[in-house]
Amino acid sequence: MLEVRLLGAFDVKSNGKAVAITSRPAQSLFAYLILSAGTPHRREKLAGMLWPDSLEETARDNLRHALWRVRKALPSKPAAEYLLADDLSIAFNASAEYWLDSTELEKLSENASAEELIDVLSEYQGELLPGFYDEWVVLEREHLNSVFEHKVARLLAVLQGENRWLDILDWGERWIKLGQKPEPAYRALMTAHAAKGDMSKVAATYERCVKSLREFGMEPSEQTRELYHNLKTGKDVPKTESISTKTSPKADSTHIPVPLTSFIGREKEIDEIVRLIGKNRLLTLTGSGGVGKTRLAIESSNKLAGKFKDGVWWVDLVGLNDPLLMPQVIAKVVGVREVSSEPIMETLKNALKSKGLLLVLDNCEHLIEAAAKYAEHLLAACPKLKILATSRERLGIFNETAWHVPSLPLPAGNSFSLKELKAFASVGLFVERTKNMSPDFALTNENALLVSQICLRLDGIPLAIELAAARVKVISLEEILLRLDDRFSLLTAGSRTALPHQQTLRATIDWSYGLLTEPERTLFRRLAVFAGGFKLEAVESVCSFGDVKRADVLDLLARLVDKSLAIVHNTSSNGGTRYRLLETIREYAREKLELSGEADITCDRHLEFFMRLAEEAELHHFSSEQLVWFDRVQAEIDNMRAALDWSIADDQSRDSKNKAWRQETGLLAIGALVWFWHRSYARETSERLKQMLAITDKPTLGRARALYSLGFLYWTVNNFSEARLALEEALTISRKLEDGLTLARSLGYLGAVAVAEGGYASTQSLLEESLSIARQCGPAGRKAASWALAFLGDVHFTQGDYPGSKKLYEEAVALTKEAHEKNMLGLMIRRLGYVALKQLDYTRATEYFRESLKTNQEVGHSMGICASLTAFANLVLAQGKASQAAQLYGAVENYLNNLSSPLFYSDEIEYQHGMLNLRKQLVDAALEKAWAKGAGMTIEQAVEFALKEARV
Fold first, then answer.
1. pLDDT (average), residues 930-946
2. Is 551 contained in some domain?
């Protein structure tokens, strides 16, 4: 059966499996037809309605195409056809087997029971077709919204008549969370809270109602105001007989603070906290300042209230500075009076010994030792007692369970719809708080990217997001994003009623920083030099100087992790544990580092460490651990970028003594990683190299290697004129400095440039000299030698000497395997495949192309995979399978567009030759059809298709 959901989403399933109607016009057509099932619609009406701005003929063509897409997506051979169409009209068959959520909503009887209403209304997930803005959708959306509001209002009335107050709390909040401002929901909630005896929540609900309506320039109705007055004065409190049969929350739970703002997201986190409290007696919520520990504890406590016979009691410790007074504060909260002849702690233990209650200790970090001591004493003496604590570090006592409160989920990427973006709690919080300040604000296609970027830059920290939202009333989103480089000056508009250390972003982190010891502060600010994370060995090397000894680093770092100023990330792909600072905290640490006067020396040590890492990675490139080191460098890509930026930082306030050293170190580091850069960062690194080389023209070893790297990267993107200029200068410097390896590499790639430009005479001498020098450079020279052999093979191949080219390619492959260099091995094996193809040995060509593809897949070389698919396309074309070749070429072109990078020169030539031959064998219409089919393939599908078609 077809199951269709249009409320809150566009979702079509057939027997539980998704039906993919991929284009928006086709979705709109399908939705319109099924919403009016059984009604035939004339084709010209549909075309004009769905494409009102198009010419009549174009609109009709669009309709035919959309109809074809819908038919193609729907299940084939159903019991009854879903679509009934002729030359004049189109209709959705009302007799077909289908279920539609909106139909179920409209069919609900006025006499339906509460259970029947709940069953159907539970399917309502939001407005009709969110993200669709056709005129007909807007009208139908308003109609269905009114139907839903009528039905849910009736449900609340039925529930109230049955004294089902908990269900009313559930459905009232559901109605409100759908983004509407329904007064009946607020009235029902007030009545339910009054029935439970919770008058503070009656008042809080009324305030929410007032605030919500004022966003639209409205005031509560007379009915709402009168109900609130009557409930508050006790004139209209409902009966409560049925409450005791369902749950027994205690009035004690009203000691939980009542927030003034709505709670956004984090349902899973609340469920997890409730679960952990059920299994543990002491749970500590830890996390950095502003991450929302207190608010999460409030919401979790409300959910836990009914689970504790003697209630939930909230102890706010933020204003307490004397740790000895903590027992008195706890005693006052739980209503225990001091006895003159007995220590207050003993009195407290005796009073709570038989009580089944939850004690919440909020903001423990500044009294951590006292909090640990008294919590341990109470838990030991009171077997039914449980404690929920919030702190920036764990209490550190036996049987404690610590749970780290994460930042709000963030949208990574730009491919989300508005509905998907709103589902991210970080975005939802920003939008909600912005509306509080600017009622006209809404998330739109125009501002969605800016809102996402603001939330990302603020690490999903709730306090930071709320402070940023408060600025929308005075500056634009674009200005907020730009000013986040100075976020501590921008984010100062906190609530006057908030705790002092939560009124500004700086004050929040100042609070944590002030609780650190001096050695902890020193390491914390030095960690600011790391970008994107770091490993322990890097911290030990970079940060252990002066007052911080290498042996102390692990302990100090562990303490910063405990205090939520550093975060642990366990990974296996790059060989161990990594740490990082949230970017907001890192910026604060950077300010402290600048003020300390240690910024230059720390950044210099950071640059030196990552230059050494680059050199070590270069050595391991020629070993069996090549792929491990590629992963390790990839993990440090942000640190590499930061180090290279520092090497050319032109700041007059900096110590200039080490300026030349920094520049040379940066050039050596970037040059050592040329084999890494070309895989995914060729264009970025080319621009960075040009910038670094422009700083100085001194002919140093670093400059020679950087120039060679630039020339190599230009060669990989077929920019031969720029490549030649860089390589010639690298050649001149390396000859002068007698740097054999850079000399051999420069000669080799100058030869490759000459091959591409057709200069075969000069090519031979360049490559032979490169080969001779490379063979004198030991293991590191094998790579240069293998390339020289491969380029010599290209010379012979281009001139039609296939036996000669085969011999050279085979030597290159053998030497490359000996050097454990898999990254470019695929290209050399592929060249052997093209030799076999030229000699019409399809079996051998297939074997080589398979091996080339497998090698590139092993190392994750995207361009190599694409080039291997091109080779298979040429192979099947030579075998007379023109349509299959066209599909592969379509897949290759689509993949290349996604990579935004060209094939290597030799592969590009084969691609162009293949395309030329293909167009001779296929007429345009057939070519376009096969091409489009291939363009729709995923890369995995294209590989599977290529391997299947290449069988001989």
1. 89
2. no
Q: In terms of residue numbers, what domain contains 894?
A: 842-952
Pair 672, 706: CB distance under 8 Å: no
Q: Tell me the one-letter amino acid at 350.
A: N
Question: How far is the C-alpha of 632 from the C-alpha of 636, rounded, in Å?
Answer: 7
Q: Which residues contact 596 (CB under 8 A, 6 or more apart)?
A: 522, 525
Residues 446 and 479 in one domain: yes
Are 396 and 455 contained in the same domain?
no
> Of the candidates 479, 464, 423, which has an alpha carbon nearest to the alpha carbon of residue 583?
464
The verdict on pTM exceeding 0.85 is no
Q: What percent of the chain has pLDDT over 70?
A: 91
Strand partners, 391: 286
**Higher confidence at residue 472 or residue 370?**
370
Token representation of residue 778: 């030991």
Among 381, 404, 427, give the residue marking a domain's end: 404
Q: Residue 870 falls within a domain, yes or no?
A: yes
| Gap between the Cα atoms of 739 and 624, Å rounded | 26
- Cβ atoms 686, 722 nearer than 8 A: no
CB 186 within 8 A of CB 172: yes
Amino acid, res. 764:
Q
Say yes or no: 267 and 374 in one domain. yes
**Mean pLDDT of the residues in the chain:** 85
Residues 50-84: tens digit of each pLDDT: 888 778 888 888 898 889 889 888 988 888 889 99
Q: Residue for token digits 């709505």?
A: 262
User: Is residue 315 over pLDDT 70?
Assistant: yes
Q: Quote the pLDDT of residue 307.
A: 85
CA distances from 816 to 422, 780, 787, 823 (A): 51, 11, 9, 9
Radius of gyration of the chain (CA): 35
Tell me, yes or no, whether 425 and 388 share the same domain. no
Same domain, 396 and 425: no
Same domain, 353 and 459: no
Say whether both 449 and 381 belong to one domain. no
Q: Between 829 and 437, where is the model more confident?
A: 829
Is 603 part of any domain? no
pLDDT over 50 (residue 402)? yes
Strand partners, 293: none
How many domains does the chain contain in total? 4
Contacts of 902 (CB under 8 A, 6+ apart): 717, 718, 896, 908
Q: Which of 357, 378, 404 is the last residue of a domain?
A: 404
How far apart CA 880 and CA 895 sit, in angstroms, is 24
Q: Which residue in this structure is represented by tokens 């306030």?
A: 653
**CATH assignment at residue 351:** 3.40.50.300
Secondary structure of 578-638 as H, E, C letters: EEECCHHHHHHHHHHHHHHCCHHHHHHHHHHHHHHHHHHHHHHHCCCCHHHHHHHHHHCHH
Regarding whether 430 and 361 lie in a shared domain, the answer is no
Residues 727-736 have a mean pLDDT of 96
